[in-house]
Amino acid sequence: MIHWEHKKLYWKNRGWLVLLLFAAVELTILTLTLNTLARNTQPSLQQGMDNLYAQFGGELTEEKAQLIEKRQDEIAQAEKIYNETLGKQLSGEIPFITFQNISKKVLPLLQESIAYREFYANYQYALQDTDHRHLIDTRGWQVLNSGGNLDLVLIFTCVILAALACGSDMQKNCAQMIRPTRYGILSLLGGKLLLGAEAGLLPGLLLQGIYGILTATAYPLPDAPMQSFWMYTDSPLNLSLWQGFWVSGLIRILGLMLLGITTVSLVYIWENVVTGSFLSVAIAILPYFAGNQEMPYLDWPVLTGMLQGNVYLTGGAESNRTVGSLMLSLMMYLLILGVLVVVSCLKYRGTYPFGFRRKAR
User: Fold this and answer.
1) Share of the chain above pLDDT 90, in %
2) 200 Cβ neighbours under 8 A, 6+ residues apart
3) How confident is the model at residue 138 (pLDDT cuts 50, 70, 90)?
């Protein structure tokens, strides 16, 4: 039964094409993001940053801190000498050839100053907590961690796949045909619910693989404590950045699987694919647009926080962005989802609670 449902979803209903289009769109978006990031970084600045992180990056030791401060003093002194010499040359106190000779001596440090200014800001951030923050280039992590934004393409793909799993059966009224067979109504609906969970699992795994491989190829991503990246400054979790990336991905995948099951349940409750799909999308995204920067919906029984993935890992003393809030929201939503599944099963069988039967049309 499940084998036939898979075949019907991915081949007869073109589910494979939905996944292919989803992968193409996500690859395009990620490629454009990486290209924009590369265009906004001058080659000289890129090379300077790479050299600095290769020399001083990683765990911040006292020896590295002393060398970084020394280099900062040298650059500041070079800028001072250049500015003073330029002023004297403009005022006519020294000839141009003298200004040129002095400038050549400090030119290497001046060329490094732009890259060093950005590097030094990251150094000061890491210096505040050397036990939990490493000095790393975070540009690649800015792509992997989008600040808790919702991926609407991912959400729509999940809902579309879940709707395809039950759309054709509803049009042909398969429930009445399956009722007298050995499979039974609950067997069919159980398979649909499993396909709904799979509709969230496959796009979630696909997206996680695309982001992990393509971003790691474009930027070297060193492994370091989560707190090395500014988004996780207040996180109480003892995880590395790569571990945090996969944990947040698992949270998102769990949210997508629950979204797929919710879509199937709502479709059968309303007996309408469009209405059920629309309600499912609304449940997923409306809290995000209705909330504010404090994200109060993270304590609500909704999927929005889980679909954002990393937002529950950021932490904070007076914040709801914690694993505890995730567990509370998840348990409340599972209770609501359980009710939806029971109602969809009863309605699919043609009965209502307490033994009442649905009127025949």
Assistant:
1) 48
2) 158, 162, 253, 255, 256, 257, 258, 259, 260, 261
3) confident
Q: Which helix (H) or strand (E) holds 91?
A: helix 62-91
- Angle between helix axes 96-127 and 43-56 (nearest 10 degrees) is 50
Q: Could you please report the per-residue DSSP string of 178-210?
A: HTTSSS-HHHHHHHHHHHHHHHHHHHHHHHHHH
Bridge partners (DSSP) of residue 171 are none
For the cut 50, the answer to whether the pLDDT of residue 78 exceeds it is yes
75: amino acid identity, one letter: I
In one letter, which amino acid is 84? E
Q: Are the C-beta atoms of residues 222 and 58 closer than 8 Å to each other?
A: yes
* Number of other residues whose CB lies within 10 A of the CB of residue 118: 15
Contact 323, 302 (CB under 8 A): no
Q: CA Rg, the chain, in Å?
A: 28
Helix 62-91 and helix 43-56, axial crossing angle in degrees, nearest 10: 140
Helix boundaries (H) for 128-184: 139-144, 152-171, 174-178
CB 305 within 8 A of CB 326: yes
Return d(Cα 246, Cα 266) in angstroms, integer: 30
Structure-token pair, residue 130: 């050397």
As a whole number of angstroms, the distance between CA 256 and CA 196 comes to 9
Query: Are the C-beta atoms of residues 283 and 290 closer than 8 Å to each other?
Result: no
- Please choose, from the candidates 68, 66, 79, the residue with its C-alpha nearest in 3D space to the C-alpha of residue 109: 79
Q: The whole model's pTM is what?
A: 0.88
The DSSP line for 83-113 is: HHHHHHHHHTSS-HHHHHHHHHHHHHHHHHH
Task: Evaluate whether 162 touches 196 at the Cβ level (below 8 Å).
Answer: yes
Q: How many CB atoms lie within 10 A of CB 284?
A: 26
CB contact set of 298 (below 8 Å; sequence gap of 6+): 304, 305, 311, 312, 320, 321, 325, 326, 329
Query: How many CB atoms within 10 Å of residue 43?
Result: 8
